[in-house]
Each structure stands twice: as C-alpha cells, then as structure tokens.
Amino acid sequence: MSGVQVESYDDSEGDDLFEDVGENSSSIRAIEAEELGSSNRNADIMDTAIRNEELANLVKLFDEFTVEGWEHIYQSPDLDLYRLPLEGTDVYKYRSRGIMQASAAKCFMLNLDLLYRKEWDPYCMHLEVVTNEEGHADLEYIHWQVKFPFPMSHRDYTFGRKSGYTKDGTYVVFCRSCPIISCREKKGVIRVDTYGCHMAYRPCPEAADSAEYVMDYYDDIRGSIPKRIINWASKKVVPDFMKKMHKAFENYEAFLERRGFSFEDYLLQCKERAATLD
Fold first, then answer.
1. Whole-number pLDDT of residue 91
2. What Å distances lie between residue 222 and 23, 72, 110, 213, CA to CA?
3. How far apart are CA 199 and CA 95, in angstroms?
C-alpha cells in the first residue's frame, strides 16, 4: 500500500450529517421530485456492448496503477482509495486497490452471485438478471434497487454486466449502466443512469487464501444531496462495502451447500458464463 498519509474519518460524523438532513426531510424530497420529475427515459437496450478489451485493460491496472492527479482520500492496511472528478460533471470516479481475505475465485463467484448478494447486503431491495445478450452468455442485463437512508428516496439501476478470466487465475467483473425497456421507472424511486463498477481479482503471492484487487467505480445518484454528505460518504461507502464483503466470504460456501452446489461446481458454472481473456 502507498505510504501517503491520508486523513482518517470519524464514523460518527455520518450520523450527525444525516440528522441535519432529517431536519429538512420534506424539503429534500420536494427538491428531488421537482428536479427529477417524470423522466420517461426508458428505451430499448442501447448499444452498450462491453468489449473484452475493456476487461483486459482493467487487468493491466494491477501493474500500471495510475493515479497521477487523483486525490488520495482513504488508506488502511487492506485498501487505498482515490477519487477524480468526471470531466464536466459533479460526479467523482473512484479508483482503489487492496487485499481481499478470500481467493480470487471466491471473490469472482461472490461478485456474480445475485442470490447471495440479496442475503448479505442489507441495502439490496431487488436484484435480478432481466435478460442475456443473445449469443453472448458472458453479457447479462440486470435490474437493481437499493435502499437509501431516510429521508432520501431509494434508487434503482439498470446495467450490463460482463465477466471474464485468464489462464493465470485473474478474474474480472465489469458493470456499466444502460436503459432496459422492461424495467420501467417507479414512482418514488430515482433511476440512476450514470453508473459503473469494474473489479478485477488475482491471486495474492503472499497468501493462497487472499486476493489482490483493483476497482474503478462511479455513481451519479442524482437529487439534491448536501456536498458535505457526499464528501463524508465518499470516504465511508467503499471501505464499508469492502468490510461487508469480507464478512460475506465467511458464510459463502455454506450458502452454496444449501443450494446444492460444491465450490468447484459453481466456479465452473461461473466460468462457463465468462469470457476468456488470454
């Protein structure tokens, strides 16, 4: 990990911030409704094909982890986190690298397993594969609804997801937002249409049961959210999500057994739906 000294954050700060928001809950909901209105943006699935080259470029981040010009906002023994404003927007792109206390294969499987995500992620309200790209088993289209803390409206996402792997045991899961006609927007739920989460895992040389990972992530949740909450959340959301994933690893094989799968059989199924990147 980088030796740069990064200011730590206080978890309790978020509670105070959300208390501040709560005092103006009705006004925030009114502002969101006024700004967003009825967007009626749904259309056929657009040409959002995720190319194998994009997955291969993510793998290169392991050896070419470029963060020049990025702000280093969080550091722990298992995680370095950076952010960079997306040009022409108020949205940040986040880049991180770190260590997972699970094999690269288990990280890959857990990332793809939507049923298990609904069990271990308390913010996941709905998550399903809507359709697959015809002729491309490695590309799926997904609808995801996420619980947001009161007084904010819940969000939902529609996105394409492509997975891949290499012969040396590196795995990639690449997600990017796209509209899906069958997933109509719901009243009171804000559709997020700028989203990407790109993760790669490879075996950690120091420990067989650990994996190195790199991630690029961006997410325009829209609506009027105070900037200080965004700044606080940017230092908290990714680290907290990684902690939840670490906890989820502990129970994953038992979850597979309850569904009648061995670890090896389910890994094989995941790889059959993934692209080969060599």
1. 87
2. 20, 24, 28, 28
3. 10
Q: Among residues 225, 252, 267, 243, which one has the least CA distance to residue 116?
A: 252
Longest dimension (CA), the chain: 55
Phi, psi of 98 (to 5 degrees): 180, -160
Which candidate, 106, 238, 240, 108, places its Cα nearest to that of 174? 108
3-state secondary structure of 191: strand
Q: What is the pLDDT of residue 226?
A: 76
Q: Which of 154, 153, 132 is nearest to 144 (CA)?
A: 154
- Where residue 60 falls (left for φ over 0; alpha for ψ -120 to 50; beta otherwise) is alpha
Tokens coding 89 = 């927007």
Cα(2)–Cα(6) distance, integer angstroms: 10
How many residues can be counted in the chain?
278
DSSP state of 206: T
Of residues 260 and 7, more confidence is placed in 260
How many Cβ atoms sit within 10 Å of the Cβ of residue 25?
A: 13
pTM: 0.82
Q: CB under 8 Å to 148, separation ≥6 — which residues?
A: 123, 154, 155, 221
**CB-hemisphere CA count at 13 Å for 133?**
21
Report pLDDT digits (tens) over 97-112: 999 999 999 999 999 9
Q: Is pLDDT at 13 greater than 50 in this prediction?
A: no
**Cα distances (angstroms) measured from residue 24 to each of 13, 39, 152, 225, 232:** 18, 24, 11, 11, 18
Q: Is the pLDDT of residue 23 over 50?
A: no
